Amino acid sequence: MSNDQVLAFETDCHLFDDCGFPAPSEWSFIFEPLFTIGSFEVNKPMALVFLSTFIIIGFFWAAFAKPKVVPGKLQLLAEVLYDFVRRGIAKETIGKKGEPYVPLLVSLFFFVWIMNIWAIIPFAQFPATSIIAYPAALALIVWCTYMYLTFKNNGLVGGIRNLCVPSGLPKGIYVILTPIEFISAVFIRPLTLTVRLFANMFAGHLLLLVFIIGTWYTMGTVVGTFYSATSLIMTLLLTVFEMFIQALQAYVFTVLTASYISQALEEAH
Amino acid sequence: MLMQLAAEEPQSPVVPVVPEIVIGLICFGIIFFVFYKKLLPAINKALDERREAIEGGMEKAEATQAEARQTLESYKEQLAEARHEAARLRQEAKEQGASLIAEMREEGQRQREEIIAAGHTQIEADRKQAAETLRQDVGKLAVELAGRLVGESLEDHARQSRTIDRFLDELEAKAQAGTEATR
């Protein structure tokens, strides 16, 4: 791994060097290929996505492949995580009918979470979800599930009713509300699902970069050391904050998916 | 390297590219498949087994408790029975004792009366014998004394005894008259 992969900025530029602050930019999110498989070029975010997949499967395989009735430490930890999604999200949001969707929600939660976590793992330090394609891919899956369940559960007409005619309102309102609901359910929801996750991780990564680069850039002179120390403290605080945001965004993504499924399963009134 | 790249227009970060979407879908698909087919069924089975084990354990505990309660009740019953029995036995013993005492008292009374009666008879017999002896001795002495006084022998037995008896009868009659007079 060359420096260009690990460090997303010019490392030999410092305060008072007349080279300017090497601020993070779109370039911080564009990577040279790490290696190629056949003619396919694999860059760092892709590698992190692959790694995430291996880590999730590896961890849960080790924990759940041969489950014990009396669990060991690893199984217990995995059970707590699994139970959090199963009970805390699926049962809480969808209710009793949520059980068949638990695998989907579990996969979503841990995939998103692990991809987010890379932002603060040394040497990786890049959230794979800040590449919009990955949130978009997941949102696409959620959207397909949402549409499929809506029409499967309600039929064609019922499905359209479910999507754009909320019940229990005065008739005049529907003239305005129906198109809004339709656009909201069919187009806006997958879009916001994508953008919320992407933008949060993108912004989080930029913030961390600003202070990390700042710490390095201001280092070296007496005055700069104060700036540098402040910047380092900010980096640490933001790292803790990002840890929180990473889990929160994974949670939000999964809860919203669950609520869409719940809506699709709702009986027509 | 970064500077060289900067010369070109960077790819917009808000436009997803197809290869990455495909990678995302594939990776998610793999994770979902493994969870759906293998891992979650396995762990759900284990969790169900655990729940059953816990519920079974609780049922067992409840059964044991019920048994313990039953045993306790039967013990209490037995204890009450035993107490009852003891009380009954005590009562019986008391009654028996009382009747025994009464019997013995009766027996004692009877024996006492017998002894007393025997004593009376004995005393009467002794008295009679003593009176007889006394009568004879007094007669003999009186005759002897009288013989010495009158100098003649009053040895003639038949006459003698008749006289003495007469005398003594008179004495007796006098004594009886005396006692009747004092009454």
TrEMBL record, chain A:
Q: Where in the cell is it found?
A: Cell membrane; Membrane
Annotated GO MF terms: proton-transporting ATP synthase activity, rotational mechanism
Which positions are tagged coiled coil?
A: none
Give a GO cellular-component term: plasma membrane
The record's principal subcellular location, in a coarse class, is membrane
Which parts pass through the membrane? 46-65, 101-125, 131-151, 197-219, 231-252
Q: Does the keyword Transmembrane helix apply?
A: yes
Give the highest taxon in the source lineage.
Bacteria
For membrane topology, the record states:
Multi-pass membrane protein
Q: Which InterPro entries match?
A: ATP_synth_F0_asu, ATP_synth_F0_asu_AS, ATP_synth_F0_asu_bact/mt, F0_ATP_A_sf
Keywords annotated in UniProt = ATP synthesis, Cell membrane, CF(0), Hydrogen ion transport, Ion transport, Membrane, Transmembrane, Transmembrane helix, Transport
Function per UniProt = Key component of the proton channel; it plays a direct role in the translocation of protons across the membrane.
UniProt similarity note: Belongs to the ATPase A chain family.
What is the protein named?
Answer: ATP synthase subunit a
Automatic annotation (TrEMBL), chain B:
Q: Which GO terms describe its cellular component?
A: plasma membrane; proton-transporting ATP synthase complex
Q: rRNA processing: is it a keyword of this entry?
A: no
Q: Which UniProt keywords apply?
A: ATP synthesis, Cell membrane, CF(0), Coiled coil, Hydrogen ion transport, Ion transport, Membrane, Transmembrane, Transmembrane helix, Transport
Enumerate the InterPro entries for this protein.
ATP_synth_B-like_membr_sf, ATP_synth_b/b'su_bac/chlpt, ATP_synth_F0_bsu_bac, ATP_synthase_B_chain
Transmembrane feature ranges = 17-36
Please give the NCBIfam families that the UniProt record associates with this protein. ATP_synt_b, PRK05759.1-3
Question: What name does this protein carry?
Answer: ATP synthase subunit b
Organism whose genome encodes this protein: Streptomyces zhaozhouensis
Q: Which gene encodes it?
A: atpF
